[in-house]
Fold this protein.
Amino acid sequence: MKYHIIVYGCQMNFSDSERVCAVLENIRYKKTSNINEADLIVVTMCSVRQSAVDRVQGLTEKFEKLKYKNHKLQTILTGCVLKKDRKIFLEIFDYIIDIKDIKKISEILNKKIIKNTDNYLDITPKYSSKFSASVPIMTGCNNFCAYCVVPYVREREISRPTKEIVFEVKNLVKKGYKEIWLLGQNVNSYKSGKTNFPALLKTINKIPGKFWIRFTSSHPKDFNSEVIAAIATGGKITPYLNLPIQSGDDKVLKNMNRHYTVKDYKNKIKELRKKIPAICLSTDIIVGYPGETKKQFENTLQLFRDIKYDMAYINKYSERKGTAAAKLKDNVSVVEKKRREKALNEVLKQTALENNKKFVGREVEVLVDSKKGSRQFGRTKEYKIVEFNSLAGQANKNLIGKFIKLKIVDATPWKLKAKIK
Ligand code: SF4
């Protein structure tokens, strides 16, 4: 029997899908990249953006055609599924399974091999990469930001036992993994027994072996001096941080229910840069939040000029039904949202280029992650993309998953160019 898996969403959804693959392969399903030959199709979805929901709905016709050809085909939807969307999705899928119940896939498919427990995170995943792994440390969220559906689909925060996380990371390092991403909706509020997030970082940092530790997502209200100290003294914890501010205006932040001010955020960045001068920063932004005025948007633009980000993930606000923000009037026009997005991107392009130029002439360590012809790509500790060419005669040498030293010779806003040392 063959299965095909489709993932729409964030790193957490990809990590969830690696556990789904493990469950299916334990009951002897074989993965296929060809949807036409699958007996089972699993979709792991994200509900955060309406576009992901639309993409899942867009599968209806495809599934109907596939089922016409293969009457035994079964389809499962899992991941972040809003309760109110279940009715619509049940018209497309045979089963909808809560991600916490993914061990029940085996029961549903009538093979009762895996013992059922409540903790789906203890499933050993079928990692999709041989050198970079995502390790969930917590799931759920208690914050209820006004625009977000996560607390409704993932429910309240649950932290994974420290022992279990350390065991998983140790095994990965033994297998030769070079990059470990610690994942959670709000990693900074991790708490298991007496272990908080900085203590967890320190414990993982002590695991012997050469590897990098990265983490996401962070909430500015919970990101504190203790985390900064853990990164600064860690060694394996990389000097890269995504700290989503969402807006540079206090009133908008209050409307978003974010529980920090622009001043709080800037103070944290100041401390971070003082303790870790090499830190590179990215953020997440929503432009055109209901009621965001031109003046309030100008504050976000000014924040971009002040902070000088290396990267930003800018989203135009779109309503998600079921959230508090959906009760507000989506009163910023699409054209104005696009203008705001473009204006931020222009500032970002300049600051990212300025920051990247500082790397020119430096020798950096890069974890190689992909290859296109003679062009190879990787990331520095600071999460900068680096492109380099294979040396003559080495075009086929497989460097993927290896650390190499490179000399940076040029910079663009989104990429560094390098030569093999
Ligand atoms: S912190 Fe806010 S944006 Fe992040 S998952 Fe929780 S509710 Fe959503």
Remarks:
- The chain is about 35% helix and 25% strand.
- The chain has a mean pLDDT of 92.
